[in-house]
Fold this sequence. Notes:
Layout: H1 2-22, H2 30-37, E1 46-50, E2 62-66, H3 71-84, E3 88-95, H4 109-119, E4 125-128, H5 130-140, E5 146-150, E6 160-166, H6 171-188
Parallel strand pairs: 1-5, 2-5, 3-4
Antiparallel strand pairs: 1-6, 3-6
Amino acid sequence: MRKSLIALALLIASMSTLAAQSAPPAVPTWRERVAESMPLLGHRNWILIVDSAYPLQSSPGIETIDTDAGQLEVLHHVLGVIDRSIHVRPVITMDAELPFVSDQDAPGVSAFRAEMNDLLRNYPVNSLPHDRIIANIEEDSRHFNVLVLKTNMIIPYTSVFIRLDCKYWSADAEERMRAKMAAAAKLAH
């Protein structure tokens, strides 16, 4: 009887091991994926928080994740992660078309704009036509990674496009350095 119990215990243990080995790996949540990506992303990378109709792009540098979450929730989380990073800051661009979308054509757009303005109140926001933004991202994705977080938003032209820039080196510092380099090059000739 004792040998039967030991054999049964070994059988159960081996079956548990086999089940654990054959189980598919857990798919990270969008929040986990953002956390995993952030240390690797740097200036010139993009994070997009997009509406549900945003197309699945085919460039190899673009990774798309379905969040099954609200756009403001995803944007709030991503901005928090970026703000807590030591190396990048957000450069935000939104569709120039959004201010012209009416509640008659897209119910809820006015309320969304108000919530978005409140969420982005501490950030400068650029505005470009949607097609131009997409072209910029397509061009950049040839050399730099783009993380697309697709939300359940069903109002058009609400996507938020975040190009990451260096947090510890400003555009002004870059300009001053380039001016010094140009001056030094002139003296050398």
